[in-house]
Every structure is written in C-alpha cells, then in structure tokens.
Amino acid sequence: MIHSCFWFMPLLFLLAGMSSFYGLQRRSASHFVKERFSRLLIPLFIGILVIVPPKGYYAKKFHLNEQESYLAFLKRYFTDISNWSEYAGGISPAHLWFILFLFLISIGLLPLMLRIIKKQYSPSWMRHPIFMLLPFAGLTVLSALPDVSGKNIFLYAGYFMIGFFIATSDTIIDMIEKHRRFYLVAALVGTALLLGEIYTIGSQSGFTFTSLHLIIYWIALLAILGYGKRYLNRKSTFMNYFNPAAFPVYILHQTYLIIIGYYILKEINYGIISFLLIALLAFIMSIATYVIRRVKPLRVCFGLKA
Questions:
Q1: Residue 203: what pLDDT?
Q2: Which residue blocks in 168-271 are alpha helix, DSSP H?
Q3: pLDDT mean over 286-298
Q4: How far is the CA of 210 from the CAs of 97, 145, 200, 213, 292, in angstroms?
Q5: Residue 199, CB-side half-sphere exposure with 13 Å CA sphere
Q6: Least packed by Cβ within 10 Å: which of 41, 108, 109, 205?
C-alpha cells in the first residue's frame, strides 16, 4: 500500500500550485503573503511545539521501551537539534515538513507567479495529451538537486509550478479530464511495473530508473486530476462542510495514528486486526477533528480563517 501511494505528496504540491494561481486572481501580493504567514507558519509552529512531540515520545516508548515522563522527554526534545527526525528524540517538523516547504516555495516563487499572471502566459503545449507528459523531464532534473533529510524542495517546487501552469487555462484542465482514461490505464501499467521492480530487484536509483519512476508518478497525477475534475469538482453540503477543516486533519492525523497504535499494539498485535482497529480509531478521531472549525481560537491555530 505504501509503495502504491507514491503520488500523495506530489499531488498536494500540485494542487497547492493550482490553488495559488486561483488565489492570486482574487488577492493582492501583500494579501497573499500575509495569508501564507497566518495559514502556514502559525500552524507549523504550533504543530512543532504541541502536535509533533507526542509522536516522538510514544515512538521511543514503543521501540526503545523508554519509561521517562513526558515532561522529561520535552526537555530533551526542545534542546536537541541534532536530527530532524522526531523519532530520534529531537525537535523536528516531522510530517509538517509539507507546510514548511509549501511556505518557502509559495513565498520564494511569488515574483515568478506574479510575472506569469501579469503577462497572462499559459503554456499552449500543455493542451496536447502527449506533450503533457513532458514535465517529467524537468522533474527528473530537479530530482538530482540536493535534498533535506530525503525531502527535495526543488522537486516539490517543480510540482507546485506545474500545478500553477495547469491552472492558467481551463483548456488544459479540460484536456486532462477528456483523456483521463488513457492516463489511468498508463498509470496502472506503470504502477504494476514499479511494484514489480520493488518486489523483485528492489527500488533502484540512478538517472534511468529515476526518470522511469517520475514519468509513472506524473502520469498517475494526470489520471487523478482527470478523474477529480470529472467527479469531485462540484459543490455539495458534504464538501462545503468538510473541505475547510481538511488541513487540521492533516496536521493531527499522524499523532493520532502513533498514539492509538502504541496502545493497540501493546494489547492486540495481530496483524490485520490491529491495522483495522488503528485505522478505524484514527478515522474516528480525524472526523472528530472537524469540531475545530467551530472554535474560533482553534481555527487560527490550525490555519483556518478566523
């Protein structure tokens, strides 16, 4: 399951790029920057201070059987900057690296985005279903640039800008929707090949394999965009209620999983049964998270409009 969800984080940055284009149609640059600070940096800092530490605490209890108190753990957590992995016991953005990268990318690329909007530029070659496969080449180049703890901000900036360019023309989006079946079949074939590689010779690196991986990732994203445009691009009471609070769920979901998993696996370590229990309880907690949208102080803390 993990290996077949390679598209998840690239999709978030792709959609963030599209969202930035639409946002800059309605907001000034200064308003956009102010919103980035309030909706990204505030949740990031609160997450690092409050949401992430329990993950490290329970992970160390589970894997190392450490019995120190939570307060004692926090003293080390906030003074240890030697490792960005929360499981090493030091301060870390953990899964909130996405928010940090999104802030840096959206602010850093703002001058370029404003220039593109001012010139009303939209890449015409993206309107062709085959040429639309070409972005993987640029992604391959970006993937060779340095990363931070295994996370390549340049590569994710590439996904972000591709999403921005896609949003510049309804024709591009309509083309992706029209050819969604082609992209889906190609993505399924590519995913099968990718899984075959992983489970036979192991995940490979190097220019050739990286290029193959990235074109599979990219085609999968096109399929998801196409079907999303077809079936999810509509207003409903359900979507209107749950969409705004999806961000707090992202911030909290891993902490739910770690804490629930710790207590479940202590008592019931039976493979699929444990997995289903953890997934069910984490889902229930995620749904409960939507109460945040009703509490004004919490809305600000989790990046929602006050």
A1: 81
A2: 170-178, 180-200, 207-231, 237-242, 246-267
A3: 84
A4: 23, 13, 17, 5, 41
A5: 10
A6: 205
> Which residue, chain included where needed, has tokens 């953005």?
93
Query: How many angstroms separate the Cα of 12 from the Cα of each of 9, 16, 39, 68, 228?
Result: 5, 6, 16, 37, 13
CA torsion angle 277 280 284 289 (round to 10): 100
Residue 85 binned pLDDT confidence (cut-offs 50, 70, 90):
low
Q: What is the mean pLDDT of residues 1-6?
A: 58
151 φ, ψ to 5°? -110, 120
* CA distance between the termini of the chain: 37
**Three-state SS string across 34-75, please?**
HHHHHHHHHHHHHHHHHHCHHHHHHHHHHHHCCCCCHHHHHH
Distance (Å, rounded) from C-alpha 205 to C-alpha 216?
15
pLDDT of residue 152: 94
Range in 87-91, 238-242, 287-291 the model is least confident about: 87-91
Amino acid at the residue 205 = S
The structure tokens 């309880």 sit at 281
